[in-house]
Amino acid sequence: MNRFLTSFLALTPFALAAESFPVAIQVDLAGDLGPVQPIWRFFGADEPNYATLPHGRKLLGDLGDLKPKSVYFRTHNLMTSGDGTPALKWGSTGMYGEDGRGRPIYDWEIVDGIFDTYLEKGVRPYVQIGFMPEALSAKPLPYRHHWTPRAQYDEIYTGWTYPPKDWAKWEELVYQWALHSKERYGEEEVLQWFWQTWNEPNIGYWRGTREEFFRLHDHAVAAVRRAIPGAKVGGPDVAGGPGGDFLESFLEHCIGGQNEATGDTGTPLDFISFHAKGWPETQDGHVRMGIANQLRDIDRAFAVIAKFPETRSLPIVIGESDPEGCAACQGENLAYRNGTMYSSYTAASFPRKLDLAQKHGVNLEGALTWAFEFEGENLFAGFRALSTGGINKPVLNVFRMFSKMTGHVLPTESDHDIALDSIVAHGVRKEPDVGVRASRDGDQVCVFLWHYHDDDLPGPSAAIELSLSGLSTHPGKVTHHFRVDETHSNAFTVWKALGSPQDPDASEMAELLAASELAEISSPSLQAGENGTGRLTLELPRQGVSLLVLDFSENP
Length: 556
Fold this sequence. Notes:
By secondary structure, this protein is of the alpha/beta class. It has 2 domains: about 5-35 and about 405-550, Sandwich (Immunoglobulin-like), CATH 2.60.40; about 45-335, TIM Barrel (Alpha-Beta Barrel). The chain is built from 13 helices and 25 strands. An 8-stranded parallel beta barrel has the order 2-3-6-7-8-9-12-13, surrounded by 6 helices. A 6-stranded antiparallel beta sheet has the order 16-18-19-25-21-22, with helices on one face. It has a 5-stranded mixed beta sheet with strand order 17-1-20-24-23, with no helix packed on it. The two termini are about 30 Å apart. About 50% of the residues are buried. Belongs to the glycosyl hydrolase 39 family. One of its GO terms (biological process) is carbohydrate metabolic process.
């Protein structure tokens, strides 16, 4: 171990945790709860142009490697006017302008470069149709904002947030873009994409009325379907779960309202999208997460979708699903983002999203993590990101764990798994949440374990006794034990131990990159018992996440 890291760990509070507490976990290898649902495979960011820059390209490659051609990326500003220069909460493609006589000028070069990069890296577009080009905006000036992380959030809502001054030109722009995409990438490819109008139209991102948004959406969907008849279209990516009554009103419009573009009844709807965010705050000098806030958003939105027979079975994408709202903001309550608070929150929250879908009987297709990277910013600057300066954060390694779970879901039970109703109502404020999910794909079994608490404070480890039932005649063994914690899969800890360098030398960078990969630790021994049972034990520290991979083939 690096000498700096050794010194650092001697001082870190997680090295001083109290005695462990016992946790009993059971996995039934003979059970089958249906196929694994890879809802984790969606990501996104405000800044579209980062995708084509060096660290953005690297991170896209890491995301694409998780599940090639099944990972999706959603981004704002794909239609925003500008020269493609990125900034915080800003980006542009300049795809639309007009000549002196008001005739459209289309330019696809920048947006093509973005989508080309996605596809090269094994990632597909979740196409957000927005925002309003300057030449089409009903109130274009001021247009470009220059927001900083300490500025007022509403300063970003400038000319790009307004309805079009010409609805026919708006529809034609979307049609020409969709048609160009089909011609460039092929119909078979673009039929796999998600096409969705705007972002959070119930708050400042949209400065028109609700009815004007429905009209905007109708024209966008009509345009996409005119160019690509079988395209997957949906929305509304509303803020705050159901967004008051906005989601319900949108669904009613799509089901039986008058389509403002075609005059027909209803608007095509292939998937439903909304946003759900947590609410971290500082409490007695430490960060306290608000997982309950995020889960309540999801719970309420699912309830609305389940009300309508026409929408109950439609795929749902939680189009932004995060511990809080602003990826490019900074602050004391956001100090969780660099280390294991973020990774353990992610591990604990994703299974509960699926649990809520099961509760309401709805079809959860994806939960999109609104976090990418911020090119050219300081290392570990406190942004909500998966990577910093090309160095992946611990949270990305949780997604690497998720990607290894394939096949079918196995029945599991933990005596320290906080009940769904309790975590939705209260979060994790008393006893820690030590949970489990497991999958089986042929002879390979994956057991995913997490140890989470809302309070970013040290605490005792969980002494886990894992009992397996339904073993085959082959005894099997643990072939891999992947771990994310304070000292594994954690470049942030190493960076601090190196003295927090903002310009690491070659040796330091190599060490940081190595620490950013998914780490393996020694595997516990599987002890076979009678009647197809087995057991193993392991210690899981607070904010730790483990993935055990077991092999039950004849010669593991």
